[in-house]
């Protein structure tokens, strides 16, 4: 792409969760966060903690991330396949404003467990992800039913500010796929 990203988070060493080449631009220096720890770049604070994953039938290390951007805590769970987060991961995620949660089975959370975890974490906005083309409609349909959000329509993009989060609790937002 001509523009490229400033920061990229790599949650797992798998081509499905490591698309650095898709967000790199020769006109920008990309800052890559590829594991647990604490990082700060361009006013964005990132914290990562290890969680397990058994993605595509292979034991993998997955990193869950929390990033603070414009006063909002955005959590990204990557290839998480267990709704049981350890205390360190919960501590890193903190009080979540926007949660990206995988719902696609096949080595990530199934829709029901994804909904249970999202509810337990108390995110204000929940964005389902990684439900791919195989069973895409079924996984998303199941997640929306589990969360009581069957009437949610996919959005082209989401623009949100901290003040927009007031009064939200577990609101599901579906983003249209770019593929």
Write the layout of secondary structure elements.
Layout: E1 7-9, H1 20-23, E2 31-33, E3 37-41, E4 44-55, E5 58-69, E6 72-76, H2 87-93, E7 98-102, H3 111-121, E8 125-129, H4 136-146, E9 171-172
Parallel strand pairs: 1-2, 6-7, 7-8, 8-9
Antiparallel strand pairs: 3-4, 4-5, 5-6
Give the DSSP E fraction (strand runs of 2 or more residues): 25-35%
Helix content: 10-25%
Q: What is the distance, rounded to the nearest whole angstrom, between the alpha carbons of the first and last residues?
A: 15 Å
Overall form? globular
The radius of gyration over CA amounts to: 16 Å
Order of helices and strands: EHEEEEEHEHEHE
The major pleated sheet works out as:
7 strands, mixed
Parts with pLDDT < 50 across at least 5 consecutive residues:
none
Instruction: Give the averaged pLDDT, no decimals.
Output: 88
The number of helical runs is 4
């Amino acid at each position: 792409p001509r523009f490229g990203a400033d920061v990229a988070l790599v949650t797992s060493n798998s081509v499905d969760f490591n698309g650095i080449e898709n967000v790199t631009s020769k006109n920008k220096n990309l800052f890559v966060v590829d594991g647990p720890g604490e990082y700060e770049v361009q006013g964005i604070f990132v914290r990562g903690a290890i969680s397990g994953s058994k993605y595509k039938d292979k034991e993998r290390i997955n990193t869950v991330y929390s990033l603070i951007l414009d006063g909002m805590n955005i959590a990204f769970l990557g290839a998480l396949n267990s709704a049981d987060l350890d205390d360190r991961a919960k501590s890193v995620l903190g009080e979540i404003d926007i949660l990206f949660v995988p719902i696609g089975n096949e080595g990530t959370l199934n829709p029901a467990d994804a909904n249970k975890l999202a509810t337990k974490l108390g995110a204000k906005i929940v964005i389902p992800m990684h439900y791919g083309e195989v069973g895409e409609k079924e996984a998303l349909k199941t997640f929306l039913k589990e969360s009581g959000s069957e009437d949610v329509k996919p959005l082209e993009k989401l623009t949100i500010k901290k003040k927009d989060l007031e009064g939200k609790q577990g609101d599901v937002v579906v983003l249209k796929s770019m593929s």
